[in-house]
Design brief:
Helix content is 38%, strand content 19%. By secondary structure, it is an alpha/beta fold. Strand 9 and strand 10 form a beta hairpin. Helix 2 runs parallel beside helix 5 and helix 2 runs antiparallel to helix 6. The mean pLDDT is 95.
Length: 318
Amino acid sequence: MSKRLDLKGVCSFLKKNDDYLILTHSMPDGDTLGSAYALCAGLLKLGKKAKVVCADPIPARYGYFTDSVEFPEFEPKTVISVDVADIKLMGALGVKYENEIVLAIDHHASHREFAENLFLDATAAACAECIYDILNALRIPLDDAMVQALYTGISTDTGCFKFSNTTPKTHVIAAELMAYGIDFSEINRVMFDTKSKSRMEIEKMALGNVRLLYRDRVAIIAVTNKMLRDSGCSDSDLDGITAIPRSIEGVQIGVTMRQKAPKVWKISMRSYPPYDVAAICAKMNGGGHKYAAGCEINGTLRQARAEILKHVREALED
C-alpha cells in the first residue's frame, strides 16, 4: 500500500529529495507529457536535477513545450511517475523501475497503487491540474513552456473542455494559464483540428472495419499493425482515434483495439452515462476513468474482441 500524501506532503517530499527521474505512461498523450515536463521544469527552477523518460518516442507535435526543457547530466536517485494509473501502462519502464518508484502523482480514481508514496486527486480532470496545484504551492514561477505544457495537459484530457470530467476548477485553471498570454488557440488547433494524411488514411481503414453491436449501442474498431504499415501512420498519429467509435450516433460504448504485438492489444474504451468503462476494464486488469478507460489483452484479434464484448455485454445487461 502506498502512503497517501496531501498537497503539503507532496511539496515537502519534492523539496526534500533530488535527482529526479520522471516517468510517463507509454504511448504518451498531452496530459502525461504536459504534467511531466511542467513538473520537471519546476524542479529545475528549484535547483534540483530532473529529467523525463518515456518508454515510447515522444510525438514531434508536442515539441513546442518539450524542446524547451534541457535535462542536466546526473545519476537518478528519486524515481517518480505522473498520470500513470497502473504500472503496466509504463511499458518497459514499469518492468525496469517496478521496485524503485517512490512517488506517484495521479488523478485516476482507479489508480492501482505501485509507488511508495501517492498524491492522488481523483476530482482533477487532468493530472496537469495536480501539477499546477503543486507548482503553485511550491511558489515556482511559470514560464511559457510550463504554461503551454499545463494547458495542453488540461485541454487534451478534457477533449477541449467537452468531456464530463471538466469542472469549474478546470476552467479556472485554464483561464489563469491563458492569462499568461500563450497562444491557446494554436495549441487547440494542433491538438484537435490538424490531421496528417496518414492519419486520415488510418481513419478510413478503421471506419471500414467498425462493428455496431447490441442494437447499435456499441461500436468497436481495430487498428492492426498491417493497417499502420499500409497507411504510413505512426503511433503519434493515433492521438484521439479512441473518440471515433463513441462519436457515432446512438453509440453509448466505443471500443478501440490497437495492436501492439502479434497477439497483444491495447484497448481503449469511451462511454456515455450510465456505463462505467473503468469497471469493465477492471475485469480485464485495466482501469481509468468512469467514462474513459483502458486495458491490455493477449490473443488473436478474434479472441481479444470476444473477451471485450463479453464484458461489455454484461455491463449492458446489468
